[in-house]
């Protein structure tokens, strides 16, 4: 495909908690403007991997390259400053804030030392319109009154507003109904169409095949397979996820890259 | 506008059917506004309206029982009497918004008052006494804040220790003043501090000040709406803004008319007490701080969900420490108003009782004990409710026992309403 440097490249990433090797020798390229789905059974190391990328944990081994340059995130703040935004599964949103307040939280616009509500409301409104989030009735309604899908949308919109280049989403559709799931998947497509890389963890293979450009399969802390989504179907993906081997009985081929 | 209509835009009736929308910004007409507000009252998001209704009911009951209740003399007395409950309530709002509480604030106030009166007795000018007292109170607040926030301790326990410690410090300080605090009482001999609760503006000045406040707040509201409209954002319907401005104007006129009646028997006594102006000034400052600054926004964010605030990059330790500092500072102000009200400060000050009344005031006014919801205005409304109960029952000749129990019932009712509202909005 393209020989250009990927946005994020993981090289030989390992993460150990004492004697436990949660991740072993992970190699993964996350290209800009594409949706990479990270799949795997429970305990495969998906959450550990995204937390390592998001700066919550430092890798024990290996290196992370951001636009070709090695980076070391000591805190989530540093990862955010670089352009990596994480939308967590538990969606910790302050229910009492309204949408504008939530989207601008930590990045408020000021005018002579006071909050500039008009600038903030306009910015939030524009971002939501750009992302085609039309189900939100009133931008001044409290976040607590939103549905799960709308909350995901707001969290993603915040990432976009903060110029994130990579948005990591942890099980974004896990607790959502059909229409809410559609809303979130639409948003994910919006992101990639604007050149933003998306790394999404999901158990739901239907969702994965709908939005993912690339699929990466973790099995017991190892990257057993990854490549364009077209190389997989539901059966082969499930086979990789549950056995760590390909459907035809092939042995695990780490980085079957552009297979 | 970009055409973004993937899904049909919700119809007007759908929008109005949601209890969540802000009535100010959703209503297209006055009728809409009334309907939306009605819905919000039922869903518990109405803010101050039910409390004000309750206050009116209590006032009517007292007036029926004793026709002196609504006399100008008693109402002005009520304003002065409520002032320190209100300001201590505002101190508590800072920490209640975080889901914290400051049980020591009553004694922070008392100790601040001792420092101020001590310095005055030593001959320092009033502003030096005030500044030193406020600095001390704020520093104590900061100390509590640092201990609570840095170590992650429950503020209930830290400030309970503070309450015990400061009640001891109060005794110690008054003893330490030697001949100034003989008999455990330091008297106030400074006319400026004394005038906060006992001095009045002249009737002309009362009119000028009240009308100026009404006009300025009216212009402020109009200007805010104007800016929203010219930026292409939704602004409240003009009829609603006019109604609010009318309400402020009427309140200002009523206060001025009441305060300007001669309520003296032997001498002429008229004009608004300075304490009302002091309370309004603090209300304005702290409302701006909570509503229009980053610090204020972060207090609400932490109170709503501390983890989300942390992920947004907010330093919880810093904001919590600052909130406790401001709580201490406002408590110090309260101490000075309280000393002015009593004309002295003594070892007998019940700081525990005062702080509980203050928390009660804030909660009755609509501030949540669980953090994230509340306004400075709530302390004013709730403080008036507590003040009215104390004043009215006193007027009826009822004992302190009855006063305490009635306040308890009102507080309990307020907390129950808060709890039910929470459950409603969580669902």
Task: Describe what this molecule looks like in 3D.
The complex is a heterodimer of chains A (259) and B (427). Chain A is α/β, with parallel strands linked by helices and 259 residues long. Chain A has a single domain, classed as P-loop containing nucleotide triphosphate hydrolases (Rossmann fold, 3-Layer(aba) Sandwich). Chain A has helices spanning 46-53, 76-82, 99-104, 117-130, 148-161, 178-193, 205-211, 234-243, and strands spanning 8-17, 20-30, 35-40, 61-66, 69-71, 84-87, 110-111, 114-115, 166-170, 197-201, 214-219, 222-228. Chain A is globular, with a radius of gyration of 19 Å. Chain B is mostly helical and 427 residues long. Chain B has a domain at 200-272. Chain B is built from 18 helices and 2 strands. Chain B has helices at residues 12-17, 23-26, 30-42, 49-65, 72-96, 105-121, 126-151, 155-176, 191-198, 203-230, 238-259, 274-292, 294-304, 306-311, 316-342, 351-365, 376-395, 400-426; strands spanning 185-187, 344-346. The interface between A and B is large, with 36 and 43 residues.
CA-based gyration radius of chain B? 23 Å
Q: What is the SS-derived class of chain B?
A: mainly alpha
Q: Please summarize the sheet with the most strands of chain B.
A: 2 strands, antiparallel
Instruction: Work out the count of structural domains of chain A.
Output: 1
Question: What's the end-to-end separation of chain A, in Å?
Answer: 11 Å
The portion of residues forming beta strands of chain B comes to under 5%
What is the 3D form of chain A? globular
Beginning-to-end CA distance, first to last residue of chain B: 34 Å
Record the strand order, biggest sheet of chain B: 1-2
String of helices and strands of chain A: EEEHEEHEHEEHHEHEHEEH
CATH topology of chain A: Rossmann fold
Helical proportion of chain B, percent range: over 70%
- Compute the average pLDDT of chain B: 87
Largest β sheet strand count, sense and barrel closure of chain A: 6 strands, mixed
Low-confidence stretches of chain B: 1-21
Number of helices of chain B: 18
């Amino acid at each position: 495909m393209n020989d250009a440097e990927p946005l994020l490249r993981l090289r030989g990433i390992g993460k150990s908690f004492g004697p436990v090797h949660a991740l072993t020798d992970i190699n993964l390229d996350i290209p800009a403007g594409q949706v990479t789905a990270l799949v795997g059974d429970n305990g495969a190391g998906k959450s550990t991997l995204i937390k390592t990328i998001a700066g919550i944990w430092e890798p024990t081994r290996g290196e992370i390259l951001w636009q070709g340059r090695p980076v070391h995130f000591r805190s989530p703040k540093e990862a955010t400053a670089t352009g990596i935004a994480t939308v967590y599964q538990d969606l910790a949103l302050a229910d009492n804030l309204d949408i504008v307040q939530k989207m601008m939280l930590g990045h408020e616009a000021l005018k002579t030392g006071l909050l500039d509500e008009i600038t903030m409301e306009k910015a939030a409104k524009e971002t939501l319109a750009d992302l085609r989030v039309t189900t939100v009735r009133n931008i001044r309604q409290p976040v607590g009154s939103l549905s799960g899908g709308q909350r995901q949308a707001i969290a993603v919109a915040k990432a976009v507003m903060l110029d994130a280049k990579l948005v990591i989403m942890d099980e974004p559709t896990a607790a959502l109904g059909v229409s809410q799931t559609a809303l979130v998947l639409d948003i994910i497509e919006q992101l990639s169409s604007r050149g933003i890389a998306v790394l999404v963890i999901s158990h739901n293979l239907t969702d994965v095949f709908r939005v993912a450009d690339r699929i990466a399969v973790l099995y017991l802390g190892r990257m057993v397979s990854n490549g364009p989504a077209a190389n997989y179907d539901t059966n082969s993906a499930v086979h990789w996820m549950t056995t760590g081997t390909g459907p035809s009985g092939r042995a695990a081929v780490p980085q079957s890259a552009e297979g | 506008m970009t055409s973004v209509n993937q899904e049909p835009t919700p119809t007007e009736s759908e929008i109005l059917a949601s209890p969540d929308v802000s009535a100010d910004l959703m209503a297209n007409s006055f009728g809409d506004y009334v309907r939306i507000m009605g819905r919000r009252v039922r869903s518990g998001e109405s803010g101050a309206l039910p409390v004000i209704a309750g206050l009116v009911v209590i006032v009517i009951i007292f007036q029926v029982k004793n026709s002196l209740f609504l006399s100008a003399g008693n109402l002005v007395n009520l304003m002065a009497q409520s002032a320190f409950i209100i300001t201590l309530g505002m101190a508590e709002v800072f920490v209640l918004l975080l889901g914290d509480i400051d049980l020591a604030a009553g004694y922070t106030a008392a100790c601040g008052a001792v420092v101020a009166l001590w310095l005055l007795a030593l001959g320092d000018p009033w502003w030096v006494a005030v500044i030193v007292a406020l600095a001390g109170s704020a520093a104590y607040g900061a100390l509590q804040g640092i201990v609570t926030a840095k170590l992650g301790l429950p503020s209930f326990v830290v400030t309970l220790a503070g309450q015990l410690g400061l009640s001891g410090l109060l005794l110690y300080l008054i003893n330490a003043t030697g001949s100034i605090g003989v008999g455990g009482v330091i008297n106030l001999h400074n006319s400026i501090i004394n005038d906060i609760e006992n001095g009045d503006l002249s009737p002309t000045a009362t009119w000028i000040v009240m009308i100026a406040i009404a006009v300025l707040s009216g212009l402020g509201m109009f200007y805010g709406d104007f800016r929203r409209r010219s930026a292409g954002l939704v602004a409240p319907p003009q009829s609603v803004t006019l109604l609010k401005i009318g309400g402020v104007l009427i309140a200002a006129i009523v206060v001025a008319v009441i305060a300007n009646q001669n309520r003296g028997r032997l001498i002429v006594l008229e004009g608004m007490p300075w304490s009302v102006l002091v309370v309004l000034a603090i209300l304005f400052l702290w409302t701006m701080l909570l509503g229009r600054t980053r610090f204020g926004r972060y207090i609400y964010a932490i109170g709503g969900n501390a983890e989300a605030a942390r992920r947004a990059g907010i330093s919880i330790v810093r904001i919590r420490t600052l909130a406790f500092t401001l709580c201490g500072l406002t408590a110090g102000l309260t101490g000075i108003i309280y000393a002015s009200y009593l004309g002295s400060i003594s070892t007998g000050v019940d700081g525990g009782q005062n702080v509980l009344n203050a928390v009660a005031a804030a909660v009755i006014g609509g501030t949540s004990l669980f953090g994230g919801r509340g306004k400075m205005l709530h302390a004013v409304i709730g403080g008036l409710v507590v003040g009215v109960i104390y004043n009215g029952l006193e007027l009826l000749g009822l004992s302190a026992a009855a006063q305490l129990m009635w306040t308890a019932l009102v507080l309990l009712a307020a907390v129950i309403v808060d709890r039910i509202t929470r459950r409603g909005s969580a669902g």
